[in-house]
C-alpha cells in the first residue's frame, strides 16, 4: 500500500536541509515517485528523521519494525542521547522490558526537530541477550547468580576485607554514578576510566572554555554563524548533530541574500534561485576526507601536527602577538591568507575543535585563533567536541590520581 500524499516534506528535508543527494522526486505522466533512483540504503547520516517527518508513515523505522507495536502500547520517558557528547534530547520507548525505538524530543536550543542516525538507531546493544542482567559471583570455575540483597552483602564483605580498593569510573556513566563510586572508594583510589592523554586534552579544552573568555554557542546557535573553521575534527563522525548545524550555517549566505529581497525563509526554491550556490565560508582540516568536504570552501588533509601548525599560523596572521610559525610553504600561505580574510571579515566566526584528534596542540591552536578573532572585535564562538557522552562532565570534577602510582 502506498500512502504517499505527495506533500514533498521528505525531499524538502532530505535535499534542502540535510543536503542529501540520493533521494528525490520523479514523475512520468500521472505517476509520482519519491525515493532513490536505485535500490539501496539512504546515504545521509540524518535519513532517520524521515520517519518522523513523513505525515502518513511511508518511511518506517526498520529497527522498530522487527519488534513492532503500537505507540500507545509503549512507555516513553524523557532522556538524553548517549551516543556522543552533544547531548541531544530523546524519548526512548519501552515495551515488555525491551527498548523498542528512539524518537526525537524537541529542544529549541539543542537538537530542535532532528537527530542523527547513530542516536536514533544505535540502541541495539541495550537489548543484547547476553548482556548481564543479574548479579553474578564467580566461585571456582562456576558463576553463581545472586539476588540484589546477596550481591550487596557480598560486595560489602569483600570491600571490608580488602586492604586496597580502586574504583574505575566511566565517561559513559552519569555524574551521579561516578560520584557515588568515588565516595565509596575515596578520591585517592578513584580512576576516571579515561586514558591519561585524553584527560590532559579534556582539561585543556575545559581551560579554554572556562578561562578563554570565548562564547560557547548552543547547538542551535551554530546555524547563525557566518564563517566556520573546523580544526582537526571530523564532526560528522564525532558529533553528527553539530555537522548538520554547520550545514545550515553555510547556507545562511543564500538566506541573507533572499531576506534582502523580502523572500520568506520557508521559500527554499526561491532562496536557492537567488543564492545561486552562495555560501558562507567553511574550512575543514583533517587527516582524511570528511563528510563536510562537499560544502567546504577549502579542505586541508595533513598529519595532526601540520594541522596544528596551520592553526597557529592563522592565529598569528590575525594577531601578531600570537606565536609565529616558521617554514610555511608559499602555496599553503596563500590558503592561510584566504582563511584569515574570511574569518576577519565575518561578523560571527566560529571555531570548532575537540579532543578526537588526539592533540593538545590542535586544541591550543583553535583557542589561539578564537582569541585572535576576539581581539579584533569579532563576535566569535568556540565549540569543543569530546569523545564520550559524559567526558566533559567527568573531567569537570574528577582528577585521575592513580596515574602516578
Describe the structure.
The chain is an alpha/beta fold and 405 residues long. It has 4 domains: 1-60; 62-131, N-terminal domain of TfIIb; 138-194, no CATH class; 196-394, Dimethylsulfoxide Reductase, domain 2. It contains 15 helices and 15 strands. The strands form 5 sheets. Strands 13-12-11-14-15 form a 5-stranded parallel sheet, sandwiched between helices. The radius of gyration is 25 Å and the shape is flat. The N and C termini lie far apart (66 Å).
Strand order of the largest sheet: 13-12-11-14-15
Described by strand count, sense and barrel closure, the largest sheet is: 5 strands, parallel
Architecture (CATH level 2) name of the largest domain: 3-Layer(aba) Sandwich
- Arithmetic mean of pLDDT: 93
The chain-level structural class is alpha/beta
Number of strands: 15
**Total DSSP helices:** 15
Q: How far apart are the first and last residues' alpha carbons, in Å?
A: 66 Å
Q: What's the Cα radius of gyration?
A: 25 Å
**How many independent structural domains?**
4
* H/E topology pattern: HEEHHEEEEHEEHEHEHEHHHHEEHHEHEH
Identify the CATH class of the largest domain: Alpha Beta
CATH fold name of the largest domain: Dimethylsulfoxide Reductase, domain 2
Shape descriptor reads flat
Helix coverage percent:
25-40%
Strand content: 15-25%
What low-confidence regions span 5 or more consecutive residues with pLDDT below 50?
A: none
GO molecular function: 2 iron, 2 sulfur cluster binding; 4 iron, 4 sulfur cluster binding; metal ion binding; NADH dehydrogenase (ubiquinone) activity; NADH dehydrogenase activity
Pfam family, one: Molybdop_Fe4S4
Protein name: NADH-quinone oxidoreductase subunit G
Keywords: 2Fe-2S, 4Fe-4S, Iron, Iron-sulfur, Metal-binding, Oxidoreductase
Amino acid at each position: 500500500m502506498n500512502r504517499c500524499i505527495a506533500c514533498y516534506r521528505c525531499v524538502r528535508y532530505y535535499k534542502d536541509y540535510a543536503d542529501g543527494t540520493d533521494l528525490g522526486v520523479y514523475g512520468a505522466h500521472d505517476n509520482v515517485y519519491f525515493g532513490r533512483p536505485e535500490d539501496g540504503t539512504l546515504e545521509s547520516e540524518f535519513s532517520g528523521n524521515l520517519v518522523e517527518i513523513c505525515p502518513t508513515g511511508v518511511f518506517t523505522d526498520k529497527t522498530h519494525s522487527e519488534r513492532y507495536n503500537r505507540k500507545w502500547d509503549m512507555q516513553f520517558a524523557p532522556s538524553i542521547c548517549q551516543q556522543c557528547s552533544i547531548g541531544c534530547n530523546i524519548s526512548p520507548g519501552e515495551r515488555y522490558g525491551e527498548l523498542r525505538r528512539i524518537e526525537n524530543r524537541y529542544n529549541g536550543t539543542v537538537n530542535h526537530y532532528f537527530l542523527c542516525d547513530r542516536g536514533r538507531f544505535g540502541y541495539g546493544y541495550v537489548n543484547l541477550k547476553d548482556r548481564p542482567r543479574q548479579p553474578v559471583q564467580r566461585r571456582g570455575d562456576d558463576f553463581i547468580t545472586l539476588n540484589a540483597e546477596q550481591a550487596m552483602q557480598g560486595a560489602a564483605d569483600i570491600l571490608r576485607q580488602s586492604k586496597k580498593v580502586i574504583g574505575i569510573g566511566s565517561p559513559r556513566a552519569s555524574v551521579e554514578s561516578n560520584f557515588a563510586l568515588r565516595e565509596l572508594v575515596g578520591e585517592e583510589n578513584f580512576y576516571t576510566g579515561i586514558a591519561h592523554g585524553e584527560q590532559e586534552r579534556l582539561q585543556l579544552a575545559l581551560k579554554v572554555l572556562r578561562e578563554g573568555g570565548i562564547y560557547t554557542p548552543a547547538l542551535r546557535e551554530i546555524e547563525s554563524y557566518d564563517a566556520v573553521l573546523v580544526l582537526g575534527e571530523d564532526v560528522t563522525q564525532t558529533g553528527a548533530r553539530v555537522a548538520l548545524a554547520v550545514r545550515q550555517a553555510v547556507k545562511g549566505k543564500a538566506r541573507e541574500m533572499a531576506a534582502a529581497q523580502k523572500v520568506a525563509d520557508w521559500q527554499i526554491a526561491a532562496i536557492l534561485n537567488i543564492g545561486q550556490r552562495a555560501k558562507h565560508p567553511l574550512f575543514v582540516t583533517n587527516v582524511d576526507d570528511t563528510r563536510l568536504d562537499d560544502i567546504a570552501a577549502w579542505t586541508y588533509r595533513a598529519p595532526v601536527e601540520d594541522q596544528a601548525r596551520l592553526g597557529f599560523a592563522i592565529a598569528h596572521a590575525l594577531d601578531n602577538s600570537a606565536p609565529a610559525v616558521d617554514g610555511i610553504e608559499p602555496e599553503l600561505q596563500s590558503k592561510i591568507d584566504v582563511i584569515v580574510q574570511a574569518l576577519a571579515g565575518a561578523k560571527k566566526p566560529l571555531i570548532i575543535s575537540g579532543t578526537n584528534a588526539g592533540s593538545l596542540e590542535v586544541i591550543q591552536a583553535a583557542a589561539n585563533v578564537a582569541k585572535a578573532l576576539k581581539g579584533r572585535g569579532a563576535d566569535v564562538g568556540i565549540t569543543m567536541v569530546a569523545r564520550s557522552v559524559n567526558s566533559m562532565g567527568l573531567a569537570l570534577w574528577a582528577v585521575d590520581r592513580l596515574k602516578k602510582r
